[in-house]
Amino acid sequence: MPEQEVDVRDLLVKENDGYRKLHEEHQGCEERLDALNGKVFLSDQEKHESVRLKKEKLRLKDQMAEIAREYLESNPDGIHR
What we know:
Elements: H1 3-15, H2 17-37, H3 44-74
């Protein structure tokens, strides 16, 4: 991953409330998925939850990427802190 992308994400987590909220939701989905993946056996309900969480993570990631893209387009000279 390019260093600029990491820097932009770090900046947005610190300074953009909307991005930070999406990031926290994404982390929550990841933590729950990790818990589910740590189980030897998943119930049908847990399997459905796992699929739902994966889709939600992707949706959140897409939204965060869009915010980062808009930030970079509005700041073509780089990251401004």
